[in-house]
């Protein structure tokens, strides 16, 4: 086990392979963002699939220590799928979307940063999230 003193990541896997996977994930997310922006939905879906495979490799390795690194790329992959019209989706994309949402919520909880995850979930369940937020704010004691 190697511990990097700068960011306290547990490098139990070969460090160079893990860094290569993180770099590949970030580049794939960047390409998916551009593909989504130019409305090339086939490329967007392909990038999301590749990004999910790379993220899944890292999740299976050490999700606890990598949650803060994986949260942002997972959110971008979910948003890329949300911006792709459903007519371009197949069965695989629907399953991929639910798995990405699940991993994104877990990463947000593990990294203790759920505010971006709530924004993504708000796009998925707008009426539920806004109702829950109203209930939480109503149940707070006055300051």
Spell out the key features of this protein.
143 residues; mainly alpha; 5 helices; 76% helix; 0% strand
Low-confidence stretches: none
| Count of separate structural domains | 1
> Mean pLDDT across all residues, rounded?
75
Note the total helix count: 5
Indicate the percent of residues in helices: over 70%
Q: Give the CA-based shape.
A: globular
Q: What is the terminal-to-terminal distance? A: 48 Å
The total strand number stands at 0
- How big a fraction of the residues is strand? under 5%
* C-alpha Rg (nearest Å): 17 Å
How would you characterize this protein structure?
The protein has one domain (about 15-140). Helices cover about 75% and strands about 0% of the residues. The protein has helices at about 15-35, 40-80, 90-110, 115-125, 125-140. It starts with 14 loop residues before the first helix and ends with a helix. The model has no long low-confidence stretch (mean pLDDT about 75).
Please describe the topology of this protein:
Layout: H1 15-37, H2 41-82, H3 91-110, H4 115-124, H5 126-139
Helix pairs in contact: 1-2, 2-3, 2-4, 3-4, 4-5
Give a brief rundown of this model.
The chain is built from five helices and no strands. It is mostly helical and 143 residues long.
């Amino acid at each position: 086990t190697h511990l990097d003193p700068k960011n306290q990541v547990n490098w139990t896997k070969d460090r160079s392979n893990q860094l290569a996977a993180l770099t590949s994930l970030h580049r794939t997310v960047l390409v998916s963002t551009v593909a989504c922006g130019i409305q090339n939905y086939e490329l967007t879906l392909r990038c999301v699939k590749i990004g999910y495979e790379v993220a899944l490799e890292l999740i299976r390795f050490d999700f606890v220590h990598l949650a803060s690194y994986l949260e942002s790329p997972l959110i971008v992959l979910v948003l890329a799928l949300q911006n792709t019209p459903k007519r371009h989706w197949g069965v695989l994309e629907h399953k991929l979307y639910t798995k990405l949402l699940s991993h994104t919520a877990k990463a947000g909880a593990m990294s203790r940063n759920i505010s971006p995850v709530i924004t993504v979930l708000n796009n998925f369940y707008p009426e539920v999230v806004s109702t829950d937020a109203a209930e939480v704010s109503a149940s707070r004691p006055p300051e």
